[in-house]
Amino acid sequence: MRLDIRLPLGLLFSAVGLLLAIFGLAGNKAVYERSLGININLWWGLVMLLFGIGMFVLGRRGERRSSNTGASVAAPLGRGTSEHE
Amino acid sequence: MLTAIDWTIMVVYFVFVLGIGLALKRYMRTSTDFFLAGRSIPAWVCGLAFISANLGAQEVIGMAASGAKYGISTSHFYWIGAIPAMIFVGVFMMPFYYGSRARSVPEYLRLRFDEKTRAFNAISFAVMTVFSSGISMYAMAKLIQTLHVFDAPIQRMGLPLSWVFHAGILVSAVVVLAYIFLGGLSSAIYNEVLQFFLIVAGFLPLVWLGLRNVGGWAGLKAKLAAGYTHSWAGMGSAHTNRLGVEWFGLAMGLGFVLSFGYWCTDFLVIQRAMAANSMSAARRTPLIAAFPKMFFPLLVILPGLIAIALPNQSSTTVASAQGSAVVVPAGQGLIPPKLDPATGGPMRDNQGNLQLDYDLAIPNMLLHYFPTGILGLGLTALLASFMSGMAGNVTAFNTVWTYDIYQSYINPKATDQHYLWMGRMATVFGIALSIAAAYMANSFNNIMDMLQLVFAFVNAPLFATFLLGMFWKRTTGHGAFTGLLAGTLTAALHHSITLPAGAGPGVKGGWLGLVHTYPSEMAQNFWTAIFAWTACFVVTILVSLVTRPHEPEKLTGLVYSLTERPQTRDLPWYQRPGILALVALAIVVLLNIIFM
Distance between CA atoms of B335 and B358, rounded to whole angstroms? Predict the structure, then answer.
């Protein structure tokens, strides 16, 4: 497959993380009584955003590497071509 | 209860799910692209899909429920009941599944044994997948209904509340149908990877908040009886532990027969490894999957333990079916009592003890700790787990239907394009049949219980057939087929003359008389499996010895002694199946010691 799964995964987590973090910053703080007074939306949103960006960057790098080596069809990660079948 | 932010998160997720299907559509040129993802998926993606396909809503909800009911002993279902089998299939069995170029597990049986063994496996498997996805659809729709989170939008549309159930089934069926129809197995695998990370992202903060609240693992231990927090305590006898099983029944029944029967022979999971881009990637698939899998108890069992350890929630008043208000007493922790659907009152067992609705452990934890925002994420994770389980069944069904039933017995000479088309059609009618099964489960609960029982009988002996087939070249087709039949009949017979303690004859067993009473239903299930496996093993050997063996040259690549070992010397150490297997085993042993 020529689509690297880390790209959509990274985008999804960045989008959801960003939404949560913004809501955590701007939204009503009274709702955090449930979550033991912790602004869980802000903090978990940031964690998800970082993970998402990381995945996206890795995905882009993998895609570039595989198009450079010309092995994009058989090995989308640019490795595995030397493995024994 | 839900606000705009929760809905936005759910919508964003659904956009990505469908977007992946659309993006992969143009790569679907041959039937191999559709059913086997063109055998082009890297190992780590296959590995995550391998566990995600098994991580349906029933698993997530059910494991938390067992956590609340039995305690940390539930982790035996992972550390005994999954990891050893996953290691075995990767190291020893994958060379034959992947190396034989079989396109499905039934097709392997055709290559190794004969047509009738394949037909038996293909047909029972196809029927099973349709019903399992129907049952999981039903369970999820029921759960959504109980949570009342989707009541408001349904009421706003002017529909009666029973539509929450219909909408739950319809929306999930249409979404799963769309992305598999478009992108086949690739689309299912890619979505399973998204679902895996979403489930982790949704449940990890829940466990973190819960543990913080009860004072960490030490605080949790202090709040619960000792039987809850020690996985091996009292396993010497079935009467001294919460599971009601002794160590031998657990190790043999769950750890060997049931677990190896599922992880090593069920096409639903094997298909994910068959999609890998090389032999070594296929062998690594279950091994890579083993690492996250062994830590899943922290994610799905701990919430159940926390739910039961929290202070009791006050009693509530609910409207009963007859319209009068009924006061429901408090359950234990966050777990409410089970309600009788007819009266709306709480259900009690023979001794008058309150019965608890353990399945609500995870949903109630989500509602208890998550404010709006992350609640949307948690519910999305729940929906994701539900869809991944269903998609696993649907992709396995359309492949077995098209290759092992349609191409083998109905229309063998069609073009590849025709089989690609048939795969898409099979996706449509497979999902339609699942919906029918879901409604059947809704109206005839007993029929579903009986069907699941029959499936258990068919599945129990399977691993004996594969074990002998792969490692003893003398095993014959007649032997395999007779062995399978004998194992299935033995399972039915054993079930018909035993009962779990406290149950009456009927669907729980004992319908031909009563010879033995087991301390728990779990013990009865494990021993049914042990008897079925043994019968299949013995009968297969005996019949094989008196029937004509296959010619050795026809078994190359299918049997251990006639197949060249896959070379792994050129791989870096972290890609060698043997090393990965040893590391995984060591960690599991360590986990068992820590939580002993």
Answer: 6
